[in-house]
Amino acid sequence: MDNQENKKTGITGWIDKRLPVFTFINHNLRDYPTPKNLNYFWNFGSLAGITLVIMIVTGILLAMQYTANTDIAFDSVERIMRDVNNGWLLRYIHMNGASMFFIIVYIHIFRGLYYGSYKYPREILWMLGVVILLLMMATAFMGYVLPWGQMSFWGATVITNLFSAFPVIGDYIVTFLWGGFSVDNPTLSRFFVLHYLLPFAIVGVVALHLVALHQFGSNNPTGVDVKSSGDTIPFHPYYTVKDYFGLGVFLIVYAALVFFAPNFLGHPDNYIPANPLQTPAHIVPEWYFLPFYAILRAVPDKLTGVLLMFAAVLVLFLLPWLDKHKVRSATFRPFYKQFYWLFFINAIVLGWVGAMPAEGVYVLIARIASVYYFSFFLIIMPLLSRFEKVGELPSSISAAVLSKKFDKDINESYAK
Amino acid sequence: MKVMQSKLHITILLLTILFPLSVFSAGDKVDLMEQKWPFNGIFGRFDNTALQRGFKVYREVCAACHGIRHVSYRDLKDIGFSSDEIKSIAGEYEITDGPNDEGEMFQREALPSDKFVGPYENDNVARVANNGAYPPDLSLIVKARAGGADYLYSLLNGYKEYPEDYEASEGMYYNTFYPGNQIAMPSPIEDDIVEYDDGTEATHTQIAKDVTAFLAWTAEPELEERKSLGVKTLFFLVLITIMLLGVKRKIWKDLD
Questions:
Q1: Does domain A36-285 match CATH 1.10.3720.10?
Q2: Chain A closest CA to B224's CA: distance in Å?
Q3: Is residue B123 one of the residues assigned to a domain?
Q4: Site from A90, A110, A245 to mutate, B interface, most B CB atoms within 10 angstroms
Q5: Concatenated DSSP letters for B199-251?
Q6: Are A365 and A354 contacting, i.e. CB atoms less than 8 angstroms apart?
Q7: Which residues of A are catalytic?
Q8: What total number of domains does chain B contain?
Q9: Would you write out chain A's pLDDT as a tens digit for each of its 416 residues?
Q10: Which of B15, B145, B226 sits opposite A348 (nearest CB)?
Q11: Range of the domain at B188
Q12: What CATH number is attached to the domain comprising B55?
């Protein structure tokens, strides 16, 4: 592999000797040894990267037409929808792209959670991922404010007001965030600037995420380390083509949403221009925030609720030290697997209850689900690390693949 | 085991994608009067004759109180009006322009490139004229209400007498479909309130249907283009994805 660069001649060789971009591409996208047993859940990393690019490109084009001023923001978005060439397409791609981005990243996170991708030696890789999630949340929240509809305005009001829960400095923080004494033009203007800026910060952290990934390579469904070159295959053509196929499936779902149900995941109230004098009946955040919103509302005390909501994301940083079980993959951890699926269902319940009014039985459900959310990380994981017994692991990735094939052949011959 | 696992994976994927569905379908709403709109579905198209009838209803009835400020006169071309017709429609409206070279504001006839002129000079005038209630702009009304076109159609057909023992507020009307049931707008349409040029019988429901279709268009003028591009895009994507699956299988085959 090291000889590769010496072989290059001509212009690419000349450039590569001085700036090894071609060597870099070769190492990281072509020869890059990748476990041969990755399943389709390993597609979501590249999908997230592609979605980020789609969001940035459509976002830049939209920014050329959008005006961040409370008097005309709403109308400028409508002008994009009606008078800008293909403006409706750009906006719907961007708007639904946010939802697709979160779907993908959530699947990506749950993948890591199942296969123990956060464990030694990938702790920093995981933590960088959590940083990306936080940046995405901030970016998405501010992006939703820009069309200056009713939900934009009231969502911004509710969320920024959360900071007032902090004693003494709370009100100062809120005034500071707003740039005034209510959500108004200065708020919109800074949200636009930050919404434009943060995605590039995300690109930076994604680059670090990739550097950290390529240090040890991908985890894999068995969770067993790569032991020999027999365990891996070159990234190209095997995973490039698999990623292309995954991209195709992803784009089908994405396009179906953009072209046939573009407002399905949005809220109708956001097509009503923002009106500070009229509060909507229910203020609901975008769907991807609902589980955290549910945790916030599950707590009667505002400050505790706010802290727990943030803690729900921040606890992910501690994952590598909460789960110290030697075995990575849940496939070989009979107990962790059960708790994992319960956690998954619990997360969906939290999302559902987050969309319901905070009253009656919903509050109780939200509380139980919130307790399980934190118990999973803070109690179950450490206990399982200590006490969960596991059977024998496959000796290598190749051995696991072979035994799977062997099982399949046996089954088929029985079937005959 | 393997099959079971992959089935489980698919179920989870679907759940994750479909989960937001349930969030919005849940609710305690009245059943709307659902219609088979020609613009529904992936091949949906607007019926221009219905939209033109609806435009007539808008112009002769709704426009007395409601604007459609996001729509330009020239946009009427999309629903089958000719340039000359559009010019004469626009010419019926007056707008204030200026200042001219003398620094004076002046009145002029609207041009096809102008946005529809609304009935009121500003929001406060609108409120004063309507007993304090603000008649919302209708350009986006179909998109801005849960239930969309079905809701609007239901609302226009949903006026009833107050039920007995109902504590009615002064100057309000009872509507089955309006949230809270009390609406400031009296039933705007009745049989034969407009006379259709194409001989269609102007019944209450027909008028409601036509004007709803028109407002569905003002809310989503890009709908036809969007859906036809969508069908082409999906056709292409499905085709290329099947091909990619073939390529993937072929390339991975030599690993076995």
A1: no
A2: 10
A3: no
A4: A245
A5: -----HHHHHHHHHHHHHHHH-TTHHHHHHHHHHHHHHHHHHHHHHHHHHHHH
A6: no
A7: 214, 218, 242-243, 286
A8: 2
A9: 444 545 678 999 999 999 999 999 999 889 999 999 999 999 999 999 999 999 999 999 999 999 999 999 999 999 999 999 999 999 999 999 999 999 999 999 999 999 999 999 999 999 999 999 999 999 999 999 999 999 999 999 999 999 999 999 999 999 999 999 999 999 999 999 999 999 999 999 999 999 999 999 999 999 999 999 999 999 999 999 999 999 999 999 999 999 999 999 999 999 999 999 999 988 999 999 999 999 999 999 999 999 999 999 999 999 999 999 999 999 999 999 999 999 999 999 999 999 999 889 999 999 999 999 999 999 999 999 999 999 889 999 999 988 887 777 777 777 76
A10: B15
A11: 29-71+133-228
A12: 1.10.760.10
Using the beta-carbon criterion (under 8 Å), do B16 and A107 form an inter-chain contact?
yes
Residues B152 and B216 grouped into a single domain: yes
The torsion defined by the Cα of B226, B227, B229 and B234, in degrees rounded to 10, comes to: 130
Residues B155 and B222 in one domain: yes
Contact B57, B194 (CB under 8 A): yes
Are B105 and B186 members of one domain?
no
Both B66 and B92 in one domain: the answer is no
List, in sequence order, the alpha helices (H) in chain B. Answer: 2-25, 48-60, 83-91, 123-129, 148-157, 204-219, 223-253
Which residues on A lie below 8 Å from B240 (Cβ)? 248
Cβ atoms of A22 and A15 within 8 Å: the answer is: yes
Does B144 sit within 8 Å of A269, measured CB to CB? yes
**Chain B residues with CB-CB distance to A78 below 8 A:** 70, 139-140
CA atoms in the 13 A half-sphere facing the CB of B67? 17
Q: Which two tokens stand for residue B68?
A: 């459609």
- How far is residue A307's CA from residue A406's CA, in Å, rounded to a whole number? 51
Residues B226, A262: C-beta atoms closer than 8 Å: yes
Interface contact flag, B70 A82, Cβ < 8 Å: yes
Say if B99 falls within a structural domain.
yes
Q: What are the angstrom distances between the C-alpha of A341 and each of A7, A337, A346, B212? A: 51, 6, 8, 46
> Cβ–Cβ of A75/B70 closer than 8 Å?
yes
- For β-strands A33-35 and A232-234, DSSP reports them as antiparallel
